[in-house]
């Protein structure tokens, strides 16, 4: 299959779009008419630019409101088509994409439409061109691919073929079995788009919310299986209308598109055993069993402050790096690395962001294979010099230029603590009962959210959960969890369109996207909070009203609610499953820790989030 992308997917000028498409290793480009109309140059100049970058224009589109027109419009429509063939000749493109008629003037009837297409085919063929017909899901008479196929079949012309657009097919929930019997040589173009499940009219849904395969909820795999059954091996093109993509970086959105196709086709190969020539073979998705460490970039002065916080949270200094100003802090299964070295990645990160999480390390089944997969997915590998005898932990660039390291037992990378760190004699301090990293929450620009969703879910064997809209005093925050089936890795992506939410203010203070909070799990939150108080840790105060309401809406006893109130613990319940959460006050730069206890509960306390955000906002105002 030849991979292509439509110019409409990307932000920028036509030149910027085409350069981004070439940089993301596509072979073909769909020229959207509007992008040509707004280009200040001739179609021949566009052709030269496309050819210079090693690309090919696979189609010019859309040609609208064609089939079923009564006279005199019918004659005008054919004259208009001839004008478009002129443009295509100059553009070096031989396929005109026609989408189904939405005009109230158009007449129905498969036979009438087929006759129109036969005539268009004749005209196209005379000029060495072809036409392809797409059923828009909101087409006036034709909105079902089975009807557009019937039109193409009856047109019975070698220059007339079908477009299958996964959005229009899947959005309407049309039965897919009829795809299987379409002759593959009559499918001139396949357009791929996913979309989140939304209850709205097809047109608005399609024009604003489409996304790359894997970023949404449509059954893309079923569509691909049906397509595969036809033996199709032609043009596979991404066609995404999405407000966030239009506002995002053309370069990174184009790479996301390529990444989504690589994963989609690899999964097709895995399901069907198909030999798909020219397709990169991906190592399997990484099986992740948790967070190995969280690394903070600090300077000498802020190291003192952070280490004070860590001590308060019950962490113990467990190791000193053999060659760098780096310390390991430990409690239960949690490792925090404090990097105050004056050289290297963490130092540069600290100069830009101040005290901040500069890296996460994940425990995976096979670290070298994980990086191989990442590289095939066009993620950015990262290398920096290592000292003699020290381990080279493989890594890729993650959110906001941070690093994502991979550690495994299989290749012995789990020995990095012993090899890279000098142990520090343990004192008799026993911690506060924190056991593991429950989740890591990252704040980002709204436009980047789908990028990082795809980054994590394409690399790791992890699933997204339905997006939640959380009310912040300054606006709405969209919150998306990505988690492994066993819950050992839980990542939260947060973003908001308002500048005044806590999440957006973090981006400003932090100078970019990054880890805003880390939730640490305890088996007994009351005892943990007790000990945190003894250590003088400041917790986020929760308003009295919250506890009054809790007493009113749950069957918790007054004593239970009192215990929660006096410890500033938020509570949620899902059937018999319970969740407890408390927060530290926000540290410099907007970062904070959360303490959680789960009793089989699988969510994140979404209904408590507005309470927490309001308290954090109130405290921020007082400062
Ligand atoms: O939204 C539209 O009008 C439109 C245009 C061309 C397409 O290929 C499509 O799927 C939708
Ligand atoms: Mg389309």
From TrEMBL:
InterPro entries: 4OHPhenylPyrv_dOase_N (IPR041736), DSD (IPR043700), Glyas_Bleomycin-R_OHBP_Dase (IPR029068), Glyas_Fos-R_dOase_dom (IPR004360), IolE/XylAMocC-like (IPR050312), VOC_core (IPR037523), Xyl_isomerase-like_sf (IPR036237), Xyl_isomerase-like_TIM-brl (IPR013022). Its EC number is 4.2.1.118. One of its GO terms (biological process) is 3,4-dihydroxybenzoate biosynthetic process. SUPFAM superfamilies: Glyoxalase/Bleomycin resistance protein/Dihydroxybiphenyl dioxygenase (SSF54593), Xylose isomerase-like (SSF51658). Keywords: Dioxygenase, Lyase, Metal-binding, Oxidoreductase, Pyruvate. It comes from the Bacteria. A divalent metal cation binds at residues 134, 165, 191, 239. The keyword Metal-binding applies. Gene3D superfamilies: 2,3-Dihydroxybiphenyl 1,2-Dioxygenase, domain 1, Divalent-metal-dependent TIM barrel enzymes. It catalyses: 3-dehydroshikimate = 3,4-dihydroxybenzoate + H2O. It is an enzyme of class 4 (lyase). CDD domains: HPPD_N_like. Pathway: Aromatic compound metabolism; 3,4-dihydroxybenzoate biosynthesis. Belongs to the bacterial two-domain DSD family. This is 3-dehydroshikimate dehydratase.
């Amino acid at each position: 299959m030849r991979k292509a992308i439509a110019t409409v997917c990307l932000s920028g000028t036509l030149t910027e779009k085409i350069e981004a498409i070439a940089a993301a290793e596509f072979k073909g480009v769909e020229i959207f008419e509007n992008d040509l109309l707004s280009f200040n140059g001739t179609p021949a100049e566009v052709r030269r630019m496309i050819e210079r970058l090693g690309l090919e224009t696979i189609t010019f589109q859309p040609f609208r409101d064609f089939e079923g027109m009564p006279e005199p419009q019918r004659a005008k429509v054919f004259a208009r088509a001839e004008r478009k063939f002129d443009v295509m000749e100059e553009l070096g493109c031989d396929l005109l994409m026609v989408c189904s008629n939405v005009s109230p003037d158009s007449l129905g009837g498969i036979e009438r439409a087929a006759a129109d297409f036969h005539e268009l085919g004749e005209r196209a063929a005379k000029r060495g061109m072809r036409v392809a017909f797409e059923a828009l899901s909101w087409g006036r008479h034709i909105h079902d691919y089975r009807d557009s196929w019937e039109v193409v079949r009856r047109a019975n012309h070698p220059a007339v073929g079908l477009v299958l657009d996964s959005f229009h097919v899947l959005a309407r929930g049309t039965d897919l079995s009829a795809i299987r019997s379409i002759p593959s040589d009559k499918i001139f173009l396949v357009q791929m788009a996913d979309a989140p499940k939304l209850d709205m009219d097809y047109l608005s849904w399609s024009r604003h919310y489409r996304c790359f395969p894997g970023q949404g909820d449509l059954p893309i795999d079923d569509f691909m299986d049906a397509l595969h059954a036809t033996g199709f091996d032609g043009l596979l093109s991404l066609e995404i209308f999405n407000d966030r993509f239009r506002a995002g970086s053309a370069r990174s959105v184009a790479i996301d598109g390529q990444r989504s196709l690589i994963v989609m086709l690899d999964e097709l190969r895995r399901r069907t055993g198909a030999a798909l020539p020219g397709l990169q073979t991906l190592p399997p998705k990484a099986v992740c069993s948790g967070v190995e460490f969280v690394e903070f970039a600090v300077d000498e002065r802020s190291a003192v402050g952070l280490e004070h916080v860590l001590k308060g949270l019950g962490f113990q200094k467990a190791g000193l790096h053999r060659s760098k100003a780096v310390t390991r802090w430990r409690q239960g299964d949690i490792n925090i690395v404090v990097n105050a070295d004056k050289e290297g990645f963490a130092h540069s990160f600290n100069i830009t962001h101040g005290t901040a999480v500069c890296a996460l390390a994940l425990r995976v089944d096979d670290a070298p294979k994980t990086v191989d997969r990442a590289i095939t997915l066009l993620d950015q590998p990262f290398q920096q010099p290592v000292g003699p005898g020290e381990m080279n932990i493989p890594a890729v660039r993650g959110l906001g230029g941070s690093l994502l390291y991979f550690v495994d037992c299989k290749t012995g990378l789990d020995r990095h603590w012993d090899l890279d760190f000098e142990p520090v004699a343990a004192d008799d301090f026993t911690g506060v009962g924190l056991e593991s990293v429950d989740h890591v929450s990252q704040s980002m620009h709204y436009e980047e959210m789908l990028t990082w969703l795809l980054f994590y879910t394409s690399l790791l064997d992890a699933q997204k959960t339905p997006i939640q809209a959380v009310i912040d005093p300054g606006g709405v925050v969209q919150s998306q969890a990505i988690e492994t089936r066993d819950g050992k890795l839980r990542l939260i992506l947060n973003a908001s369109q308002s500048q005044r939410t806590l999440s957006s203010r973090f981006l400003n203070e932090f100078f970019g996207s990054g880890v805003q909070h880390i939730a640490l799990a305890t088996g007994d939150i009351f005892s943990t909070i007790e000990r945190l108080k003894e250590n003088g840790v400041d917790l986020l105060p929760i308003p009295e009203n919250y506890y009054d309401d809790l007493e009113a809406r749950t069957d918790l006893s007054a004593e239970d609610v009192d215990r929660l109130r006096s410890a500033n613990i938020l509570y949620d319940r899902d059937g018999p499953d319970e969740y407890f959460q408390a927060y530290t006050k926000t540290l410099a730069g907007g970062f904070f820790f959360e303490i959680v206890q789960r009793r089989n509960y699988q969510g994140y306390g979404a209904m408590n989030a507005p309470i927490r955000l309001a308290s954090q906002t109130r405290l921020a105002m007082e400062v």
